[in-house]
Design goal:
With about 260 residues, the protein is α/β, with parallel strands linked by helices.
Length: about 260
């Protein structure tokens, strides 16, 4: 059972898990591992009716080491994009087995489900997620040839405005409906946006995500006032549906089909 960092994991025996990635916390619940979760981040918000039962140990970048030690975890779930390498190394130094993830394309979720199922003895649950994902993926793939190509500017942060490069999970999710993200940067996966006339004119849609920055109608209003004539291109999109891998990806593919119907 090899993770995204090349670490080989044995099947866990009565694990005590901390999850430092919101989407992986949700996945752990969907795999029936809630009784094994002993810690999560303050940003872990799903499932909303159960998450408060799991103590917070900090954020995705910094943690409270006293709370980590008190939780006495055997395993930690991390992601290469969301958690600093130094944090993973510090967890390992405490004798905690770190399971590293890094989905880049939507189909990487299949490998993620299988990894989690194998490590934590949840093969039946993980295969159910694989089946659900594949059904949605096949339906979307059948639809894709009929969809026009769109160029989109996808905004993830405000002040400074930031977007996503094409080697990111978000960009490759949108590519599944022939939406090509603008603002790619070879040296930055989440670059600042070059708000020049050509970029704005080239975009068919300018998408304001609700995650990680929670764009709201007031931000679209301010943007349209700054750039008159673009109002028809502006749209708020559900950032969780487009950026959360794991079990949320099944819903995310269905959400993509709805976006594809945008006039």
């Amino acid at each position: 059972m090899i993770d995204s960092a090349g670490n080989n994991h044995k099947r866990a025996q009565d694990p005590r898990i901390i999850s430092l990635v919101p989407s992986l916390t949700e996945l752990a619940f969907n795999l029936g591992l809630e009784n094994h979760l002993v810690g999560r981040t303050a940003f872990c918000v799903h499932p909303a009716d159960q998450i408060k039962n799991i103590p917070s140990v900090g954020g995705t970048k910094q943690v409270n080491w006293e709370k980590i030690d008190a939780a006495a975890p055997t395993h930690a779930l991390v992601n290469i994009d969301e958690n600093p390498k130094e944090l993973a190394e510090a967890l390992e130094a405490r004798g905690i087995e770190v399971v590293v993830t890094h989905p880049i394309s939507p189909k990487d979720n299949i490998e993620l489900f299988q990894l989690m199922g194998a490590v934590f003895d949840r093969e039946k649950e993980s295969e159910a997620l694989v089946d659900a994902f594949q059904k949605q993926w096949e339906a979307l793939s059948a639809l894709k040839p009929s969809l026009p190509e769109r160029k989109v500017l996808y905004l993830i942060w405000n002040d400074p405005l930031m977007t996503v490069s094409q080697d990111t999970y978000i960009s490759q999710m949108l590519a599944a409906i022939n939406w090509k993200t603008l603002g790619h940067h070879d040296d930055a996966r989440y670059p600042e946006v070059p708000l020049n006339g050509s970029t704005l004119e080239e975009a068919d849609f300018i998408l304001f995500a609700t995650e990680p920055f929670h764009f709201q109608p007031k931000h679209l209003k301010a943007f349209s006032e700054q750039y008159p004539g673009l109002k028809a291109k502006l749209e708020i999109v559900d950032g969780e549906m487009l950026s959360w891998y794991g079990s949320r990806s099944v819903l995310g593919l269905s959400y993509l089909k709805q976006l594809a119907k945008t006039p």
